[in-house]
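Model it.
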Amino acid sequence: MENTILQLYKVIQERKENPQEGSYTCYLFDQGLDKILKKVGEESAETIIAAKNDDLEALCGEICDLTYHVLVLCAQKNMPLEQLKDELDRRAMKIGNLKTMKKVDRNT
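Modeled.
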């Protein structure tokens, strides 16, 4: 999954740097931050509805749509995926609500 997200982000960045006519990704960049944020909000709401309806197929599709639009947002704001990975790794070191850092043996 990590490779898939990385590859998708590279395509999104490529579209930002080298726009292609007819590309939905380029359309989002052309419309700007407000349009991208609107799509993130819409996809968030659709994800919530699919989860509430217990429809795993729809939920999967909506999570993919949301992920794509969040990656477009990251590219729009020039946020490297490495920054997200580093923050997720840092958060993985927390224990419960105490948010105390812990050591994790990643080989087990």
